[in-house]
Amino acid sequence: MPQAACFQDLHNRAERAATPDANALADTLLNNEIARCGGMDDMKSCDRAISNHLASCHVIKRVRNRVGLLQALYWRAHQQLTVWDLFLELVALGLVNPEALKFPIDLESRSEACQSLEWHLGCFELPYYENQIDCDDEPYELWGSRAFNAPLRWLATMIVRGCTGDAGKIMEVVAESRCLGPLNMNAYNIYFRGCKNKSFNPNLDEGKPTGLSNGRRLPPFGFWLLHNIPVENWTEECVGFVRCEYVSQFDKIEYIYKRFFDFPDEVILLAEDQKENFAKDSDSMPPDV
């Protein structure tokens, strides 16, 4: 399982690498992300640690403050990219209709079917592992407890909205892809015994904002998974364009992260199984965030 980079090592690296341009890029990115989720006074419960951090440091323009926030943002971006690629694989196999992206999502509104599916997805090793993390330790506290929940909830919503056939086949593809890691059998057995209703009927209205929310809920910090895309006729070109839109956002975050910590462009971050490609010199190793 990926482990966190030593927070102090990243802090020291940022101190050595800090340049006015890198700091300015980081400040702009972080301020934009904070504004997107309404500022520290309007952040969701999953972002309480980030809100408390902002309240205690008052400004992000200190290396230590930037380190934690950038790491939290980059960690969440990678989670979402993993889930996004898994969604596109399900679309490519014809198991999920991309029209599921057509409507906005209220992440705080879920049917029993969506809750059940999110629980099942959480039985795979990567989200399960994260749920066991002690979030009182740096830098985990800023990543947010159970920060995989929002991406998994988004994916569960997309599946319930757009499932074109056998939901069991969808879960087979999720398992075979290993995007979320292997199935944790202990977690799955708890799910299997505890979940009363494991089947669902596709519902294009799943998770649509209703009543007072009416699509105006602010996202969690760093949440970029797409929805509310008004495309009437989905084609491969449309799906490709939408993918590029999301990946370009991830690339921007990664670019600024690498500039700030002075990691070479060729370093592949967050790739546990590609460590043999990295130089053994500790200074050139990427963080296992």
What's the quick description here?
This protein is 52% helix and 0% strand. The chain has 11 helices and no strands.
Q: Secondary-structure map with pairings?
A:
Elements: H1 7-17, H2 20-36, H3 48-57, H4 63-92, H5 112-121, H6 125-131, H7 140-143, H8 149-162, H9 167-177, H10 185-194, H11 236-261
Number of strands: 0
Query: What profile does the largest beta sheet have?
Result: none
Rounded mean pLDDT is 75
Number of helical elements = 11
Distance between the termini: 10 Å
Question: What is the ordering of alpha helices and beta strands?
Answer: HHHHHHHHHHH
Structural class: mainly alpha
Shape: globular
How many structural domains does the protein architecture include? 1
Give unreliable regions as ranges. Answer: 1-7, 270-289
Rg to the nearest angstrom? 19 Å
Strand content: under 5%
Helix content: 40-55%
Structure commentary:
The structure is a single chain. This protein has one domain (7-284). The chain is 52% helix and 0% strand. The longest helix has 30 residues, at 63-92. It is mainly alpha-helical and 289 residues long. The chain is globular, with a radius of gyration of 19 Å. It has helices at residues 7-17, 20-36, 48-57, 63-92, 112-121, 125-131, 140-143, 149-162, 167-177, 185-194, 236-261. Helix 2 packs across helix 11 (236-261) and helix 4 packs parallel to helix 8. The chain has 11 helices and no strands. The model is unreliable at 1-7 and 270-289 (pLDDT under 50).
Annotation keywords:
single chain, 289 residues, mainly alpha, 0% strand, disordered N terminus, disordered C terminus
